[in-house]
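Hi P.,

Sorry for the delay on this. The queue was packed all week, but I finally got your sequence through. Input first:
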Amino acid sequence: MDLSLVLKAMEQGRYLDAYSFFNALPLPKYPVDAGYCLTYSRLSYHLGSWPLARARAYLGQKRHRSDLVLAVYWSHFVEDRWGTFQSLEYLRSRVAQRHLDTEASVMADVFSRRAMISAAFRDENAAISLVSHAKKMAPDDPWHLVCESRVLEQTDKYQTAMLTAWRAYKLYPVNRLVIQQLSRTLMLLGKRREALRLLKEHRHRFQSYLYSLALLELAVDEGDYPLAINVLSEAWEYAPLMDESLNRIFRDWEITLHCRLGEFASASQKAISMDTTYHSQLAKRLEAAPVGTKEVRRVLSVPFIRQHHNTCAPAVMSSLTTFWGQPFPMEQIVDDIWYGGTFDYQERGWLKRHGWWVREFRLDWPTACALIEREIPCAFSTKNGNNGHLQALIGVDRLLELLIIRDPYDPLKGEVEQYRFFTEQAAYGPRAILFLPMDQVGRLDGLRLPEADAYDLLHQLNLALEKHGRETAQTQIHALEDVGNRRLLLLARRQMAIYDRNELLLQQSVEQLLKDYPRDSTLLLDKQRSLAIQGRAQLRIDWLREQVVRSDSHPSLGLSLADALKDNINFRLEARQLLRQNGNRLSRDSEWHATQGSLAWRDQQFDTALVHYRLACCLDPANERHIHSYI
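Then the structure:
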């Protein structure tokens, strides 16, 4: 079967034309040829059907196990379904079975794919080495320059990533992937207008819904709604095979654009068809809006500063100080207070030392609206399992009831449904930190910040514990008892228990918090950790088994159960199953690799253990426990 016209059109990003050429070909009696399966899968993906693309790729790799081109392609689906490490293992197994006469261009694709996976694990040396090999083996393939730029981006070298993408653009000015990677790196460096101009310049060259979505997101973010409407219409046209999930994404964009343009009746009708609780409530609010109502949306011009690995707090602090015209480079803040992460009291202490007025408080919807009305952005922290993240509140949409946020990892503004957000983060506030230049404090006149006085006491407690002033810290707990804030009092007792290494008191504090917030993943993980330290192994295992069967169970609870089972040879099979089940969400988690390494070590699979211990160190280089295991 001659696929040359199809492949040429796909290479040029003309996927509708490629589809026409493909449909004109005679259907083979047994459509399992490797090239046919690969082309059919790639075309299905670019026309909007992920399930069809996956099915064709699966059929191809199943029948052609020695075909490395299919193996590299299928590894993307493996990563999506089973996790990044599983994708790497699959690729290694297929490379081991390759023919000795494998073409250099095919091996180059293997090296680039492995480089991307290594970069995802923050294994910088391996990633750079692999992509360099790929470039040498296929020097005329623009894909390897794109991969090099992505590797540099994932290892926090954003300026170099942009220069690499720019070099690729000069060599291949009409390549879709090159153009999209260049636009992305420009956005990471805050050059949004250049990125938008670049995408608009090549807009009619490609028949790609992926390209259209990239332009759509940026156009909406920049407020160019007429352009966004036209681009969305093109995206619909470019995805004739779209599956249900992509269809919902497009319909959601339609609702967004109708709302931004004040077309609330149209937005309401489309919201009803989405059949979700949020969209049903949105439809009611839109129907109740008085005629002539304009969208009550306000966004502050807070600049985007891209974080490095785990440096969300310094990045947000740098972004907000820049908003107030007194910029501090993120790198300076990192040098001052960061070590694998940043504690709450360190953020506040650093700001105080540099002359800012600072308060912490519990963020809620009325306060968020009031702050934005006064043109005051703030930072807020979120908790999810073992992870914490700091972001900036930069706007609100009163009609849609959305918080508009600036995530230091995403150059586009984010939106969060306020009710769901405050419900999920209730156990920890969410805690917000507000800092202003001294001459701007008057903006807060008449505004009460919820629980600010209690947060002041908690801050003093943390400062006291940092200096080993336990008596002073105990005084703050007594003061919190007088304030009557149960949540912060229990969190303060939890902090004191951690300092004292009083696991019984820690468990009691966590148990009381769980009565109020029974499904908070961070508190659930605190409880199992406390049981582990107390040596109550069987109770910990029984309790975790009850938790992991729940539909809303956090994957880290499954990881904790695997860790609890790994020392018993009778339960190691169950432990491995748990790790596999959670691999798609946790295989980039250092603790997942540490547990995998421990299991392999106990089974005397020392080479495998070493691989996992090394990746744990790459993912969390400030964790001395991982480093000790590796060395």
